Amino acid sequence: MDWAYFLQQLINGLTLGAIYGLIAIGYTMVYGIIGMINFAHGEIYMIGAFHSLITFLICQAAGISGILPLTLLLMLFVSMVLTSIYGWGVERVAYRPLRGSFRLAALISAIGMSIFLQNFVQISQGARVKPMQPLIEGGITMMKSANFDVQLSYMQIIIIVLTFVLMVVFSTLIAKTSLGRAQRACEQDRTMAGLLGVNVDRTISTTFVMGAALASVAGMMVTLYYGVIDFYIGFLAGVKAFTAAVLGGIGSLPGAMLGGLLIGLIEAFWSGYLTIEYKDVATFGILVLVLIFRPWGLLGKPEVEKV
């Protein structure tokens, strides 16, 4: 066995899984409060990627793209702010008017919003792929073998470290702050939370904004890592991130991250050692097996019906 090749696929899988995990946290946060999946979340991630690219082009036109730290901070800030506004808008338009309706209505509304956002970006930005020059180059050679050198790029380090830092920050925010207490109260019983003084509408809107901000970070990381985006990247990434949230245990932030990492590793090793054409089949096949034997996911808790 070529251990250098194995280690390279491990690094690639962790990087891809970290991106899936960031998007999956947004899915699991929204589900934890309103009990529904935001199927427009993948498109929010795609919009975040476009915002980061447009901000870079503006910096380039202004002549400040050579100042790399400033450019990256501006890309991150603008992308998070603008994408969060989109997340807030999705909640106001697609979810809030239907909150008292039957569950299928909100689901259809979210799918419709996903299609609308995808076509909106296609019309406004064009259907062609959008390339971007590499901004962060170089890396560390971790191992050398006769046929293969293991490379850990600086971009991969940034993605993995930033993802775990954000997961810790958001987990602490939900566990230790008044906003987190309001979110957990709404998760248990929205009506009772409202009677006890929790602003339910504001709490739900804030949750959508937080999920959109995380998705925008993932979108920026993908733009910097792969250097090419298009209007369709949100669909498949959204499906994979939703799968990660279900695999790890929907409603659990560590579970979403674990599910993302597992899916990233499955895809990397399957593509590296078997065939890349069937990597999605392997991912969803393992999801089915997990749900057969553990329907609530790896770190999720079984729901108890109170009578």
TrEMBL record:
One of the GO BP terms on file = L-alanine transport
Keywords assigned:
Amino-acid transport, Cell inner membrane, Cell membrane, Membrane, Transmembrane, Transmembrane helix, Transport
Record bears the keyword 4Fe-4S: no
Location of the protein in the cell: Cell membrane
Q: Does the keyword DNA repair apply?
A: no
> InterPro entries of this UniProt entry?
ABC_transp_permease (IPR001851), BCAA_transport_permease (IPR052157)
Membrane topology classification: Multi-pass membrane protein
Coiled coil feature spans: none
Molecular functions (GO terms): L-isoleucine transmembrane transporter activity; L-leucine transmembrane transporter activity; L-phenylalanine transmembrane transporter activity; L-valine transmembrane transporter activity
Protein name (record) = Branched-chain amino acid ABC transporter permease
**Biological source species:** Thalassospira lohafexi
